[in-house]
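### Sample
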Amino acid sequence: FFKQLGIHPDWQFVDVYGMEPELLSMVPRPVCAVLLLFPITEKYETFRTEEEERIKAKGQDVKSSVYFMKQTINNACGTIGLIHAIANNRDKMNFETNSSLKKFLEDSLSMTPEERAKYLETYEAIRVTHESSAHEGQTE
């Protein structure tokens, strides 16, 4: 997916089969990010709602160096997570010439999380690549 968007082939995404030392030893190094997949349960939704209300009421201090965008596109949590992983490691990433992802990140760097989400909704290169990859997946 990200090779199509211009991430240099030196970088890859791999599955982590467990957190035990012998399973972690199978993960190539260096590692820049880990994305965790987990089911959305009623308990999680309750926690998320409470946390969102707390943040609205008290605010949240986030370093300006952290790249974050809201998710407004259905079935795009993996894409958003991967964008976060790459955006927060831009200094380590190698991009191909004319990388559409690099351009997206550069263009959206000064935007708010909400503006980044809206921009992603209209960013043709990522949308088309996401849709073609989503149809190849094993989930609905």
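The chain has six helices and no strands. This sample (Ubiquitin carboxyl-terminal hydrolase) is used throughout the tutorial notebook.
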